[in-house]
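In the design runs reported in the main text, the only information available to the sequence generator was the tokenized backbone. The following block is the verbatim input for one such run; it is reproduced so that readers can re-run the procedure and compare outputs position by position.
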């Protein structure tokens, strides 16, 4: 049933049903990210979809695992592309703004208390992967902004490392590290040590990982006393996103421990970790691109 043939009441009912379906799908998606080996898939998608929230990235992953660039119909039109016939939509949440209202609660002593609430409101909307579109003039070339998003790469090793060190605001040192470690961050000495003799690619990956530690786990930080496994997941997840964004091979990353870590975590705790990884990765990406 098309919207234009619906009454206002029918539209509200339809949107409510779609929103409920999407909320259920999101719960299933968060579980899949942590328990079904899809953590790396989520990180890859999120690194490319900065404009989308964690929840919407997960919904995109569930509905279109191979998505590379996603936008709404009007956004594609501005990029001189149109939807192909029978284009498959990806349904996500759309923010409508905050709604202010007053809620009355009964306190322990039996008295009523009025509480002012400012709650975000959402509806559902449709976006489409680039594979569901084609150019208005038949050209196969992509707009310049899409080319950068889809094919990010590192210009040169020295420049990348220089910007990475500047973003960390601490010194890098190189030495032969005993015990097989590729590098480490010392919050006490406020420095990052990288193992000498590694390839440029391995040095770069290790440096990004340790810089993520320095951003999250310095003395007095919110996460200073977080357990070791969570710290490693935060740093490794952020490093994976940064490397994927810049086109650096991420095939040797492994997140086999994620299911065990998340087994006793609530959905809120899982989302908080994803948020920490996302924010840290994009902070580093911004600093490197500056």
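Verbatim output:
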């Amino acid at each position: 049933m098309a919207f234009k043939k619906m009454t206002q009441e029918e539209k509200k009912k339809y949107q409510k049903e779609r929103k409920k379906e999407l909320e259920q799908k999101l719960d299933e998606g968060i579980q899949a990210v942590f328990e079904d080996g899809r953590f790396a898939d989520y990180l890859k998608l999120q690194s490319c979809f900065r404009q989308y929230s964690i929840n919407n990235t997960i919904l995109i992953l569930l509905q279109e695992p191979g998505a590379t660039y996603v936008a709404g119909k009007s956004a594609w039109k501005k990029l001189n592309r149109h939807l192909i016939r029978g284009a498959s939509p990806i349904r996500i949440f759309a923010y409508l703004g905050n709604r202010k209202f007053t809620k009355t609660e009964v306190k322990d002593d039996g008295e009523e208390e009025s509480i002012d609430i400012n709650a975000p409101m959402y509806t559902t909307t449709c976006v489409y992967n680039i594979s569901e579109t084609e150019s208005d003039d038949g050209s196969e070339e992509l707009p310049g902004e899409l080319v950068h998003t889809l094919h990010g790469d590192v210009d040169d090793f020295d420049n990348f490392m220089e910007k990475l060190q500047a973003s960390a605001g601490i010194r890098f040192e190189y030495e032969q590290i005993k015990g097989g470690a590729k590098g480490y961050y010392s919050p006490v000495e406020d420095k990052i040590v990288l193992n000498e003799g590694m390839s440029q690619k391995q040095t770069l990956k290790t440096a990004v990982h340790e810089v993520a530690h320095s951003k999250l786990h310095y003395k007095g930080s919110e996460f200073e006393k977080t357990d070791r496994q969570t710290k490693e997941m935060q740093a490794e997840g952020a490093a994976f996103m940064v490397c994927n964004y810049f086109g650096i091979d991420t095939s040797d990353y492994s997140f086999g421990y994620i299911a065990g870590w998340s087994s006793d975590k609530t959905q809120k705790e899982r989302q908080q970790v994803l948020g920490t990884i996302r924010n840290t990765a994009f902070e580093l990406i911004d600093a490197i691109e500056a």
